[in-house]
Specification:
Number of helices: 11
Order of helices and strands: HHEEEHEHEHEHHHEHEHH
Distance between the termini: 58 Å
Radius of gyration: 18 Å
Structural class: alpha/beta
Amino acid sequence: MKRLTHLFCIVLILATTAKVHAQNFRKMMDTTHYGRNKAVGKYADIRGIRMYYEVYGKGEPLLIIHGNGGSINNFLYQIPYFAKKYQVILADSRAQGKTIDHKDSLSYEMISDDLDALLDHLRIKNANVIGWSDGGIEGLLLAINHPDKVKKLAVTGANLRPDTTAVDPFLQKMVMDAYHKGVDSLKTINQPAVALKDHLKLLHLLTHEPHIKIEDLKKITCPVLVIGGDHDVINTRHTLEIFENIPKAYLWIVSDSGHATPLNYKDLFNKVVGDFLNKPYRSIEKTDRLN
């Protein structure tokens, strides 16, 4: 079990930190008060779980969604920046962080529906949304299934499917191997192992989901900023595919960047996303393409 947990941590580190050294990443997340702030941390009883969430700042609502195996503290660089202008809402997704989930299954649709319910709980009609990695997938699903809730959406490192047309083949195989080793390890355990089951649920997400159809992307009505590193976990062509099939979308491919743009290029990321949220969306067609 220790071996699988260690392997799982390696998978998450590789998938979420890029240039940031693993030890530095853990230190930053372990020392920030975000995600463990007793002054603002609360729980919402929604959809059979107690979802942990924190809210910072005042203004127009902004929901920020973390990635697979992550937590609120992954956005230690985004929270203080956006809280100057927005009411920033962050939650630990089910089976992650402080949000416990005893169910055997987990899906991106479940998590996006949880976030929809959280906004209802907070009596928020709609919000701007930023999603990183799995958080980007959940942001897309929010915009597809709950279009009234999303005013604008920025996603970085999101994918529509779990195969190698979307995900880097080396990393896709690495995660798949980790999943199969985890399944084998679970068979040898004679007593319940909640943490191990949660790890497997998260690995199952990475290896077997999502399955978002192109036709569903075309239904998204809000403006969307689609972001990807030029050496992201997600293939650049796939990021382009997402951009090309959303009616009102911008594309930003970040040079010399992997999957961790919100960390490695925090100042640039915050500014570009902030400008996207602040400015009205404009259609750039016909002669406007000359500008």
